Amino acid sequence: MMKFKEVNHSIPKVDGRGLLKGASAYTDDLAVDSALIVKLLRSPYAFAKIKSIDIKKALKTEGIECILTYKDVPRIPITRAGQSYPEPSPKDKFILDNYVRYVGDEVAIIAGTTEKVVDDAMKLIGVDYEIFEPVLDFEKAIGHKSIIHPEKEIYTMFPMGLDAKNNIACSYMDTMIVGDVDKQMKESEVTVEQRYFTNAQQQVPLEPHTSTAFIDVQGRLNIITSTQNPYHTRRIIGEALGKPQRDIRVYKPRIGGGFGAKQQVHNDLFTAIVTLKTGKPSKCFYTRQEVQENTFTRHEMRFDIRLGADKKGNLEVFDMQLLSNTGAYGEHALTTFMVAGSKLLPMYNKAKHLRFEGKVVYTNRCPAGAYRGYGALQANFAVESAMRELAEKLNMDPTELRLKNCIKEGETSPVFSVMGEGGEGIAQVMESCKLDYCIKRGRELIGWKKKYPSKQIAPNKIRSVGTAIAMQGSGIPLLDMGAAVLKLNDGGFFNLLMGATDLGTGSDTVLSQIAAEAIGVPVNRIVITSSDTDTTPFDVGAYASSTTFVSGNAARKAGLNMRALLIEEAAKALKAVHKDDIIFEDCTFKSKFGGESITLEELSQGLYHTFGTDMKQLIASGSNTSPKSPPPFMSAFVEIEIDTETGQINILEYVAVVDCGTTINPNLARIQVEGGILQGIGMAMWEDVRYSKDGKMLSNNLMNYKIPNRKDVKKITVEFAESYDPAGPYGAKSVGEIGIDTPLAAIANAIYNAVGVRIRSVPLTPEKILTGILEKDSTK
Amino acid sequence: MKLKLNINNKFYNTNIDGDESLLDILRKIGFKSVKKGCDTGVCGVCSVLINGKPTLSCQFLAARAQGAKITTVEGLGKKADKIVDLIVSEGADQCGYCGPSLVLTTYAMKKELKDPTVEKINHYLTGNLCRCSGYEGQLRGIKKYMGVK
Ligand code: FES
Ligand code: FES
To answer: Kind and range of the H or E element at A487?
Structure first.
């Protein structure tokens, strides 16, 4: 294994102590006391048109500074997705519109001096609605008589099959086809054809979405916001308000979790417009109810999976038909859909007959958006359940079936070049892939040989094990770009300026370690700032598992460039020494032939104070984008105990063996995986986004929507495979998302192994298990 | 109404509405370590100590806090260092939003729990939700602080 000085060490997070001791660091902590409070009047109906709206009375409330309706805001169609440009999501949203498309859609923006004033005024606004029949069932959306987006301005920046008249946000057909699926299905000796459903899920960052805005001394709009991507946010706000980006600054402070929830632009649009209209600072802090009802959920999906294999378990056909629900607006509709295919099909690259296609539909429900796992998680449930069903028909150990068919180091898949995120992809060979090791090692850790499939431990208690495997990506090839700037300071330390966005992931720490490794200095010589559109360089932001790989390589390049500059200047300072003969160690430069030396402090002092005409500022930068997106891989094994009388499940242990290349900070990598797994378990077991029959979200607070607490899972065990990807910074791949993908299928498979009940929709509730047991008993 | 609050052993005079929560008042006065997460008493990020007992400040009327000793993590000062160091050395602080209240509650737990075990720790801290970490890393650090193997 390679030895490093700074990376591959578990240093504490650079901001950890400060945050735990309560530093004022999050958006709401930084808002000024005088900021106007901004709140939204929201639609009580799932689908309606505003016939008239009367704000006269409300405006008279003392302390009210402004009330805005659709008549007062620019009518420019945007997407709030927060993705690269040109955006791969339909432009189907206005800041405010005279149509409301789900319960909670914004009707009016109200700003006043206190929360109470705003609440009082809100009650005085009179709205007359024309109510339409809402589209609530996504399987009935296509061709429904209600057309959710009748407006003529809606468009897409490139063809993606938008067909608003039929409630289709995008479709992807006749493209991802290899071989002949239908013909081979008839010829394969063993086949599986099944339908699976995944429900929506809430990201639930504990910090609600928060935004505060003010005008600075140069008359520019400043926004401090809990965003995962300040640059996209600036661009979208500019577009929505018809303002040049030059006049907008977006600053990201500490973020209280995102998981995709803060990739999209939400309340920034409202604080921005209020501050522009009033000239006063404003802030908007979403209630938990708003976070649940009015930001975005995970996409609900339906999969039709067809697998075909020969008797020995060699996979021949892999076919996936997908219907996805994007809710009222189309943010991330196309790309989550594509990821469902592109992160699963290549994982079983032995199949020669492949197909992936489907549609994403609008409904009058809470819009769907980015959430860790991003389509790959949903598809993982369907495919990894289907693989277990195939193993059953083959009478084969599911781990052997996977070992036989999964992708290995040095191999590739035709899917990489056909499918990217939103368009064509780029071919790539797996330069690092320890998936087979991960499966074998995980099997040992859980004790598979002894425990599979199950054991009766009491008359009504059965213990069983289940497994699933996963792959993700490391950023989006040739779309994601990140940059880093390093500035040498008087005193011999460096500012590392990153556009990359630490939202709690630890990326500030990881990027500091990478830069330090590249320069050849201890990490405490680095002070990182992220991220601010005025002072830090461009970065697409924190999504698509991109930061360590994409921005990390930028930090590495900037570090190497800085090192070269330092050595050049040291050679000059040491006179008569050629730069190739300089050794830089322990923050000291010397000639390899001995003689004089100069420390980094002395060099910096000279450059800024005493070198006369040689005085200068040292600044280095690095940019990175990559045609590669080396996938991290993972095997998961779960042991559960089922009570056959109640259907209750107890999760005894969850084992993950992960190949994410070099772990830049092993502790932080481990927590990323542990946290991802628990979120995945949450979705598998309890997290259920439910609506009333009129389309009102019922699971709209943390009492009705249960996220896991610390008693819910007995033990999570994470190990890393020894792995090195040559494309990554010091061998690293991504680790942010992979952990969340497997729990749905692993637990569903464990349930099957325990009681022979196959559940093809999540959450995996005791009711479903009991019903399954009863049905089985009655057919016996 | 007028209110005099004892926060971290200092007195603060403030004006409140009768229905304002202690959480909102603490943040207004400037104790930003106390966070707002859920509005419904579920997440625990608003926890403070009232007379040494962990209490959800979002569910506690400010008016009722008169005469009580309120402690926030700012008030623990150096007494928080050991807990903080043990958690960060596990890398278990992610976004940190749940952090100050977790540190505070752990501090109170150490005083209160006789013969701590993993089960007792997890039970005591059930109301301190964390969405980032998966709890395992926090537990590794907190076990060391509590002297549990
Ligand atoms: S804010 Fe969540 S419990 Fe108080
Ligand atoms: S660290 Fe983010 S909620 Fe606990």
So the answer is: strand A482-489
Verify that B69 and B81 share a domain, yes or no. no
Which residues, 6 or more positions from A289, have their beta carbon under 8 angstroms from its beta carbon? A700, A701, B39
Kindly report the pTM of this predicted structure: 0.97
Interface test with A, best of B57, B82, B89, B93 (most A CBs within 10 A): B93
Mean pLDDT of A586-611: 96
- Over residues A514-532, the pLDDT tens digits come to 999 999 999 999 999 999 9
Contacts of A395 (CB under 8 A, 6+ apart): none
Enumerate domains of chain A plus CATH numbers.
Answer: 16-22+480-624 (3.30.365.10), 31-132+206-257+262-294 (3.90.1170.50), 300-476+628-779 (3.30.365.10)
**Tens of pLDDT, residues A477-489:** 889 999 999 999 9
**Tens digits of per-residue pLDDT, A128-154?**
999 999 999 999 999 999 999 999 999
B86/B69 same-domain check = no
Residues B7 and B69 grouped into a single domain: yes
Give yes or no: residues B85 and B115 share one domain: yes
User: Distance, CA A255 to ligand 2 centroid (Å)?
Assistant: 10
Longest Cα pair distance anywhere in chain B, in angstroms? 50
Residue A776 tokens, joined: 């089985």
B11 with B68, same domain: the answer is: yes
CATH number at residue B128: 1.10.150.120
Spatial CB neighbours of A501, under 8 Å, sequence gap ≥ 6: A227, A228, A229, A230, A252, A255, A507, A530, A531, A539, A541, A542, A547
Q: Cis omega (within 30 of 0) on the bond before A537? A: no
Nearest-CA distance from A516 to chain B in Å? Answer: 19
CATH number of the domain enclosing B43 = 3.10.20.30
What sign does the CA torsion over B88, B92, B94, B97 have?
negative
Q: Cβ distance A129 to A49 under 8 Å?
A: yes
Q: For chain A, what percent of residues have pLDDT higher than 90?
A: 96
Q: Whose CA is nearest to atom 4 of ligand 2?
A: B130
B106 and B92, same structural domain?
A: yes
- What range defines the domain where residue B109 resides? 77-146
Q: Are A339 and A88 in contact (CB under 8 A)?
A: no
Model confidence at A1, pLDDT cuts 50, 70, 90, reads: low
> What is the CB neighbour count within 10 angstroms for residue B78?
6
- The preferred substitution site among B39, B50, B60 for testing ligand 1, maximizing ligand atoms within 8 Å of CB, is B39
Q: Which residues, numbered 96 to 125 in chain B, qualify as contacts with chain A under a Cβ-Cβ cut-off of 8 Å?
A: 96-100, 102-103, 122-123, 125
Last residue of a domain, one of B14, B49, B74: B74
Question: Could you give the number of structural domains in chain B?
Answer: 2
Q: Do residues B10 and B69 both lie within one domain?
A: yes
Sign of the C-alpha dihedral, residues A550, A553, A555, A561?
negative
Residue A339 tokens read as: 């990821």
What is the B100 CA–ligand 2 centroid distance (Å)? 10
pLDDT(A780) > 80: no
